[in-house]
Amino acid sequence: MDSYFDDTSMLRRVHRELAVAISGPRALLMQAAHPVAFEGFFAHSGALDEPYERLRRTAEVMNTIGFGARADADRATRHVRSMHSKVRGELKGPAGRFPAGTAFAADDPELLLWVLATLVDSALVFYESYVASLSEAERDAYWHDYRVIGRLFGLEDHEMPAGIAEFDDYMHDMISGDDLWVTPAARELALQIVMRPPVPLTRRPILEVVNFVTVGLLPAQLRRQYDLSWDPLRALMLRGGAEYAKRVLVPLAPQRLRFVSRGRV
To answer: Does residue 106 belong to any structural domain of this protein?
Structure first.
């Protein structure tokens, strides 16, 4: 099958892990912390009412790119780019450093890069927390795989960090800078994701664990802005659970429990 990636790529190595598959809520909360991106990708598109549907659609497209045929990946990304081209508007009110009337477009390179970067950062955080540590060269190879994905969504090479070191600098600047500002509407989205997810009661215990990890692995600045409670005891529990998973659970797990269906041999 003619694909953008093969089984030797870092992208497949990382995204075959089920532990990485649950990084979506963290990425979504990080995306929503950018008030202009929030307006363009959530409030304006209707995804605010169905955040888990947005996660599902994103996962389907990314799985197609990572594991599917090149033609299917091209078709899926063309559709996404077509949808993005129709999303235009302005901020109705001020949000952080952005004044009311700030224009937004879903295909704006800066916004697209932030959305892409949250997926990359969240996948790496979950992989290194629960599966295995990565060398700088492995992280760099993973980012270079994602640059391929960035091009599929319309980003030019010069609009993306050149390597993982530049990517890390970009993430540091974004998290510590003044672009991110959690609005009341974004905070409500966080409550939908973390506190009121649409799942049957029988699956609630599993989801509580996922939510615990999502909150714990958010950058501290964003966790505070979202008003999500956290404390040293929870941090200790998170680290202990992650180490146990990395050292015992994941290495011993059979493929059907460890890998996504497309990542199994």
So the answer is: yes
